[in-house]
UniProtKB/TrEMBL annotation:
It comes from Bacillus coahuilensis p1.1.43. GO terms for cellular component: cytoplasm. Residues 130-430 form the Aminoacyl-transfer RNA synthetases class-II family profile domain. One of its GO terms (molecular function) is ATP binding. The keyword Ligase applies. It is found in: Cytoplasm. This is Asparagine--tRNA ligase. The gene is asnC. Belongs to the class-II aminoacyl-tRNA synthetase family.
Amino acid sequence: MKTTISEVKQFVGKEVTIGAWIANKRSSGKIAFLQLRDGTGFIQGVVVKADVSEEVFQSAKSITQESSLYVTGEVQEDARSPFGFELLVKDIKIIHDSVDFPITPKEHGIEFLMDNRHLWLRSRRQHAIMKIRNEIIRATYQFFNENGFVKVDPPILTGSAPEGTSELFHTKYFDEDAYLSQSGQLYMEAAAMALGKVFSFGPTFRAEKSKTRRHLIEFWMIEPEMAFYEFEDNLKVQEDYVSFIVQAVLENCKLELERLGRDTSKLEKIKAPFPRISYDEAIKFLHKKGFDDIEWGDDFGAPHETAIAESYDMPVFITHYPTSLKPFYMQPDPNREDVVLCADLIAPEGYGEIIGGSERIHNLELLKQRIDEHGLDTEAYKWYAELRQFGSVPHSGFGLGLERTVAWISGAEHVRESIPFPRLLNRLYP
């Protein structure tokens, strides 16, 4: 019976064949232990000299790290294993001998590991993080599909930018200027006017010369947009969504979280509703914490967000930022023209902002005024303004950065581990 490691629990006491790679091994005189991986998981194969042919035992002793093979054996329960099962090996058929695999079971420098990212992905830690990423993606589709959202795919090549062009990658689109998308939001607003509640899930690009543990040049965004949803409605969707994906990972990635040494008690607390603090309150709080350099109207940096987050054991919304700090499309607070109806969601444990969202301006004249104030090309945004000309309604949306969310939930220190092939400042290889 041919199967996978993740499915062996169905075959306890039976003989199965698994296509696998050798992650590691050790042997004594009469027994060899093979650490096997097949992409679905890891399992130990035990080869007892007395139970196999001399040829099979010698293969088990001499096989090298990352060699590929078909291994046949009996599935046994093993309470000592985190996985709960092991394979009593009967036969080995080597597919390919791996020679001098560069990532050995020892400490390696980060640049070396990044140069070998295509191979580093095979490690237990990276495997666990990628499985958690996959579960967050699966749960994202489940959440929005179950809540009446329609998946819409905005373009990656755009002729305009939602937040200006200073941090965009420029390219030529035949004889026109074009940019790699930094957000699908504007297009999602158009889709929401057609379909009500929509979400996108795709790559976005920021030509931002940052080298922090929170920044990538290319990353993935989940961007819902909702017609007839005002500011409070928007926050409710955000906290329900984040709670849903955290609980999904806790339920379906127990082994991966354990492998990463993640303190799951912190994740178990993540349930809506989330605490809130206004920008005004945040400034006062930071002054009390000794951040005398920050003034009203300044944006928050990583140290400021971390200080605020440390006061809570849940994600926290920072709401009502100054109008001057935020993009042109955000709806002003009806009671205060100097702040907008927006919120950033800050993850606990120093992982920073994972969501930015707002109610959008739905008044045509105000939007035109904001486009002018920001010095944007009126003609390029003509289609966007027309959304307010033909049946405008209050609407809201947000964007969640997948990689920061993966890093937070998995406990990874740097976002470079939360995407298969990270694009960082000065790194485009492999």
